[in-house]
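Structure in, sequence out. Go:
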């Protein structure tokens, strides 16, 4: 059931050093290709990175776990693949929501195949653009890191309105999520009447 998959998916920042089969990566990109697109313009392109030398170069352009500077993946925990989501400016000049939808599709298909993922917007885009030899007509929107998980983060309740993720004494990452009743109003956003 898709709802259960969404509930169980967490962002993964540390990976087992095992290659991801090309077929799995192509399935992720195909899911993104088939995802909704505003006005069906389909302005996104994708670069799949799985070459050993490029993996390290791409890794060096990314920022991880802003709330936990000590929870950065090491070179022995780095992702084994990336899908770089690009906007083709020949089709559309400004990014809309397509990249976010595509990134979630990639992440969910990855999760369904036993892979972990991390959607990254903190990217040194200029440097990555040079590394990937991208033409000026393509802008980097997001990077999705992929691989077999080497950690098992858990969802937790928000405490004292604090949504910052944290590590417990066993180095398990806890990711606070707001309660459903705290974010849903019915038929408008009027004050609840009791």
């Amino acid at each position: 059931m898709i709802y259960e998959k969404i509930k169980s998916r967490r962002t993964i920042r540390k990976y087992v050093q095992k290659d991801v089969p090309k077929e799995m990566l192509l399935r992720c990109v195909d899911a993104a290709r088939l995802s909704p697109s505003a006005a069906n313009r389909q302005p996104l392109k994708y670069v799949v990175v799985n070459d050993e030398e490029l993996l390290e170069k791409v890794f060096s352009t990314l920022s991880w776990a802003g709330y936990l500077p000590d929870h950065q993946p090491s070179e022995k925990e780095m992702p084994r693949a990336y899908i770089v989501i690009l906007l083709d400016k020949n089709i559309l000049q400004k990014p809309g929501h397509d990249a976010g939808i595509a990134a979630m599709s990639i992440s969910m298909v990855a999760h369904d195949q036993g892979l972990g993922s991390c959607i990254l917007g903190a990217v040194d885009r200029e440097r990555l653009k040079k590394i990937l030899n991208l033409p000026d007509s393509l802008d980097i929107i997001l990077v999705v890191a992929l691989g077999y998980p080497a950690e098992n983060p858990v969802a937790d309740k928000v405490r004292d309105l604090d949504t910052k993720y944290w590590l417990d004494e066993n180095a398990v990452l806890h990711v606070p999520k707001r309660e459903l009743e705290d974010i849903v109003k019915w038929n408008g956003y009027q004050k609840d009447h009791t």
